[in-house]
Amino acid sequence: MIESNNPLAEVATAEASPEAVLRLARWLRANPDGWVRLYHGTAAHVPVANQGLLPTSTRRRNSLQSRSGYVSFSIFPGHAEMFALLAFPRRSVTVYGVDLRVRELVPDLDQLRNQRAWAERCVKPTLAHSLAYGHGAQVKGAVSAARLFAVRTVVPSRGATIGYQPSVGFATGSPSRAALDAASRPSRVAI
Fold first, then answer.
1. For burial by CB atoms within 10 Å, which of 35, 75, 159, 163 has the most?
2. What is the pTM of this model?
C-alpha cells in the first residue's frame, strides 16, 4: 500500500543519495497521513493473532541495544526475517506486514546508532535517515493484531544446524572499517 509518489521506493532500491533522502524527508513532512508498508519478524509461536505486536520491554528484549516501549519495523521483509532468525535461532519465525501512517512512525535510533558506529555514516536522528540508511522505523507502543497480515513463516533448515560450531570473530585495534577490510580479516576462534 505504498503510494506511487512515495520516494521511499527510491531509497529502497539503491544506495540512498543525499538528494533522495532530502526528497524522502520532504515527502514525510508533507504527508503525515501517507501510508508506508513495513515489516516485523518474530517467533512463530508468539500469539500475534491475539496480542498484536507488543513493544520491547525488559522481559521481551532480544537485543541488548533495543530501547523499551517501541516495536521495530523494516522496509524489507527479508530484513525482518533475518532479525527474527537472529533473535530466535533454530525456531520457526513469521514475518508480518503492516500499513502505517507516517505520523505513527519514529526514527529507529538503535539502527541509526549502528549506522554511525559500524558503517561510519553521518546520520541524523530523523525519520528520513532512519528509513533511508537504517532501513526501518519504530512505532511507540503496541500494534494491534487487526492491522497485521502474515507475509510468510520460515521453518529453519535442520541441515543448517547439524554439526554447527558457534564461533566468535575478533579484531585487534579500533573497531574501524579498516579492521574489517579484506586485508585485515578477523581471526575466527571456536568457543
1. 75
2. 0.77
